[in-house]
Sequence to fold (1179 residues):
Amino acid sequence: MWASRYVQVWAGVCLCGLLVFPAYPSPAHGADVPERKTVVLLYPNPRLLPESMAVEQGLRSTLEPAVASGVDFYTEYLDLGLAAEDPKEQLLTRFLRQKYQGRKVDLVIPVAFPALHFFLQHRAELFPGVPAIFCAANLDAIKGLDLGPDITGVRLRSEWGATLEAALRVDPGLKQVIVITGASEIDRDLEAAAVEDLGRYRNRVALTYLTGLPMARLLDAVARLPKDSTVLFVSLLRDGSGRLFTNPEAVSLIARASNVPVYSWAETHLGHGIVGGRLASFEAQGARAAELGLRILRGEQPRNVPIVDGEGAAYIFDVRQLRRWGIGESRLPHGSIVRYQDPSLWSLYRGYVTGGMLVLGVVSLMWGLLLQRAGRRRVELSLDERLKFESLLSELSASLIHISLNDLDDEIGRGLRQIGEFLKMDRANLHEYVAEGAIVRISWAAEGVEPLSRVMDPDQFPWATEQLRGGHFVRFSRLSELPEQAAIDRESYQNIGTQSELSLPLGAGDSLLGVLSFNSVRTERTWPDELLPRLKLLSEVFAGALERRRAELALNERLRFETLLSELSAVFSGLPALEIDHEITRGLRRIVDFLEVDRGTLVKFSDDKLSAQTTHSWAADGVAPAPAAVPLDQIPWTAARLGRGATIHFARLEDLPPEGAATDRATYLALGIKSRVEIPLMIGDAVVGALALSTLAAERTWRDELVQRLRLFGEMFANNLARKRSELEAQGLRNDLAHAGRVATIGELTASLAHELNQPLTAILSNAQAGQRVLDTAPVDLVEVGEILKDIVEDDKRAGEVIRRLRRLLAKGDPHMSALDLNEALEDVARLVSGDAVVRGVSIRLELAAGLPPVLGDRVQLQQVALNLVLNGMDAMRESGPGDRMLVLQTAVADTETVRVEIKDSGPGINASDMSKIFQTFYTTKPDGMGIGLAITRSIVDAHGGRLEAHNNPDGGATFSFTLPIAHHRP
Amino acid sequence: MSAPSGTLVGIVDDDASVRKGMARLVTTAGYRVEVFASAREFLARAHHEDLCCLVLDVRMPGLTGLELQEALAVAGSRMSIVFISGHGDVVGSVKAMKGGAIDFLTKPVDARELLGAIERAVARALTVRREQAGATDMHGRLKTLTAREAQVFALVVTGMLNKQIAAELGIVEKTVKVHRARVMEKMRAGSLAELVRLADRAGIIAKS
Fold:
């Protein structure tokens, strides 16, 4: 059918708007290609439409032969028509940004106004500095458009008026024109242009606009129009109920249903039921855009290339429709083209028949009739076929773009089946290169034929792969056609039963995504040239889908990565220094899980830079733990690179340089490491250690992008380690100061301590001497002696307790946080100062809440806080009268998370002017004070996560209060 | 050296162990002991007269030892007090001694020192008792004097001659001699000197 010469006839008669077969680049053994040009096409429609095909046809046929080094076309079908704030548009721009980020684009061609608008909005983000040529954009109704620099283009002029003129010529009695448009944005834009253009005919005819109606209602309406009306079709890509159409489809439905003639404005609509009109040629638009494009690609500045109007619009009519409505050709405007003349065999061979030679005539008549019928059928089939194929392509491209990525494989399979069945192939396959050296196939086979296996070894087809990488396709009708170099390929084809094959590359050059291939298994078959452009379009549709999937997978992975990074960062922010180590190990665990490696470690380089000690490590289940330390002279190459701040990664040991890293290789081999990535950890400019991720079970590749991202984790760990170090240093300083404060406080208590120790000592002495006297008296009362000794021991222990309490308070240790009984600790403090209180004549009252929950803190430090505040309180009451010295220690639950301690005195209170200063370092109101007491006290409370405050009591005196966190169970 | 048995010693100290230990020690020396946890507790006990000695801690919560000493003095008590102190309190000790304490000891207190001080305290207490007893006796004797005898007494102790007294009172010398003898008898004085001493004790101011 494809080989039918009638097709060639019709092609010659120029069925523009459908496809004309371009001069396809021959399947040559491609010569070395220097710099190829990259052109990006932006279509507003989400799928292939006849209009876009026509534009592209015009573009490619003009551009491709003219650029010697070759042109790579990237086609983007934007699903516009959504609100600007629509997240889908943001997703789209993100996808495009990712896709074109590293690629050099030489020219962007937005087609139709919606794509132009999108381009102008996102140009800076997506294609900075790239010149652009718009094409087939009807700007007549657009007001105030600022194109900006570096852009020129081909305008589509509104010629609706001209069409209407023709309709009026055809039917001078025309009274009403029904203008039909759909609901999509493209439809609306075109309608606006039409309204503008048709405005001047308002007085001549009644204009009725049917906009955005559901197709059913439209069809209903056009079936019942009055006789003196006519229909003008503008555009209907989406009807009122959301159903999608191509314009030829829509116009065909409407024309069939309409009881009056239907006119339109685009060549692509002709042949589907319209009478005709002043038809714009999309192919001419494309060709003109290509001409401008050539100038740009050769280096001209867009500002020197003026915007032009598309040509090629002409009065063209469909003879069949003329006949249907009884319109004579004489009524058409002068110079009109009439198409679809029927050079039927009957008319061609009429001569024979009328030759009068009966036998020949009858035979030839019969022959003629047969041929004619066959011919017409063939002609009609091929027209139908073409439409059907286009619909198929259009549908497929739409579904591939909209399908969720999980269902993509199924949809590809379905598409392959449809195409395969339609083109009557034995097998249709899509190969995708998924990773280094792996090829996954989706294969459809006709009934009775074996489909290809899911996974393929790329080494089976070396010659074919080379061809495809070069951007050429592979085509043969029989195996013997394959050249000498393809010996291995031939054998492989034989193995899978292929007799004839057509393979097209998806993507090009380095970014070869895969291959679309069609096989014939049962018989040999030929692949006519006409097939190629259509299949090339198809391959681009598939390529787009595969690319989209890749981009989204990469995006997803990056999102997951970034989520992990931000989650870990969140954990670390505000974390107390003591918990950093624990969280680093947990972080390593999450990274190991996420990347599916076997082991993650953090190493610290020793100060002498001789060894790397493992400080944190996480190994997956069943994996041996990391060695505690590795001498750096066993991994000299690694150490040198890390020392320079460079990362290291290898997928297998052989990837390491053989001479330079021989020692390293041996070491890693001994450690069982197969693949590894190592990131230096830097604090400032100094490399202090490294983050290493290893696999031991299997080899694994590391994408450059991943390694770069891992640097971020390295930074995060390094920062937190630095923070831990500095916080612990600060902690150490605080400890020293707190200790000094305690020593000073204890000094203040000496007198009262001496008193407290004296009591048990006195009792012991009295008891002992009493005991001696008892022993001197006869009879000796041994029972009494026993009791005396018992009391001595008790008193001694009591003395010991005082010493112990003192020692604890004087201890200079690292703070030890634990859940402690605050009441008990405060009672201890009260006991410590009791002697002093007596001396000073102060009554101490304890109001400790019963059942106080345990608080989290360091006992010694908290006692120091209480002690300091109590002594301060007692000092404050120095001037008060003897009966008026009352110090109250109070504890209470403040809320579900905190406990409050209050120390109230009955002194003169704090001066308002001192209030703000009392916690400052070195501020003191005592004549012999150092002024560090309250500052240290406050810093200790702060370090506990609490808050120290002071206020004056309403009934006199001051209260110092602080809160502490309740110790809950921690996960 | 042991004291007459039954002599009561009081110990006031806020520390229980100290009280217990000291009480034991003092008991082994043959005294009876009563312990008090605070000065107030001691004051709440009626009749301190039977206590011969008070062992008193200086620094205590509430009323201090020194304050107790002062309170007792104000109440007219002549209690023998032995102070014990947990600090080296110079100021306190001076005050204590000036207030009439027997001794001021520092903790931990050695037995010999403590018992020695208690002994002295008890001895003093007995002397005081005797004196007080004596004082009571004397006042009784004074009461038995008639009005005229009292007058004569008052003048005799000024050193006036009988002749002068007779002239002062407007009576004859012989009557004065009789009254004088009566006074000597009633007051149980053996000599003029004794009489003067008694007068002094009774608080009869000698006219000069």
